[in-house]
Structure formats: structure tokens, C-alpha cells
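README: folding subset

This subset contains proteins for which both the sequence and a predicted C-alpha cell string are available. Records are stored as plain text. Below is the entry for MULE transposase domain-containing protein (167 residues), shown exactly as it appears on disk.
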Amino acid sequence: MIEGSYKEQYARLRDYAEELKKANKGSTVVIQTEQVGAQAIFLRMYVCLAGCRQGFLDGCRPVIGLDGCHVKGPYPGQILTAVGVDGNNGSFPIAYAVVEIESKQSWIWFLRLLIEDLKITSGLSYVFISDKQKGLIPAIETLLPTVEHRMCQEPQLYLGGKQKWKI
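--- output ---
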């Protein structure tokens, strides 16, 4: 009762988007819906706060990490993220999106908005790092065929506390 219902929260999503843009002038917030009969159903949302965008452009290396993770619960989906690398080799958030499914189409949608926000023209001066997310490799090849795209390795933890690298 304290948190309210999911339907009530989704109904207020546009209000949330407007508050983000009002509190963070120059931010990009895009909500995509799908029309089912007379009702608009949430499909995707992209957020790039102006301060994060400017901080990345002013003080970070031209390296962007891309990743996705699952959203659990009654309305599952994926969170897609773009993270930069600052001067101290720390992570610097750039943008995120909530999408219905991780696919080439959802990555293309996310990357198009990110490319527009960061004003990336050819991609020649950028390096993108990711693991082999569903649809991400062909999405990058489609939108930024000349960009350097590297794969990362994640540690895989096993019982007994020994760490092995997943390849």
C-alpha cells in the first residue's frame, strides 16, 4: 500500500520524465509506447541527464562501456547502460534505458539516442567495450562500423572462493 501499484506508477511515468527534464535542464528523456486499442502501453524509456552527458564530454576518456541486465518482477525487461571512464579510471554514468527485451532493435534504439546525445559522428575517436550482449555486436556494426569495439572478460565465481575468468 505504501508503494502503490505498478499500474499507478506506470501511469505517472510521463510526470517523472518531465520532472527529470525540469530538474536537469537539457537532459534527454524519451518514452516509447505501443498503442493497444485505445491504451498506450509502456515499451521503452531512455534517460541521459545533462550533467552526466557534459561531465563525460568534458572530463572522461573516449571509452564507453555498454551492458545490459534483467529487470525481475511482474513486468520484466532489460536495463541497458552506457558508462564512461573518468581520469581516475573510475566509472562515470552516461545514460540508461529500460527496454522490453534485449535485441538488436532495442540496442539500435538505445545507441541512436546515445550517439545523438554525445554528438558522435564517425566514431573513429571512440572505443566501445562490452560483453557479447544479445544483439549488441550487430547494432554497433550497423550504426558505427568504424568504431573500435572490444570485448571484456568477466570473472566467474565458483564454489570454494576460487576465481576463474569466463572467456
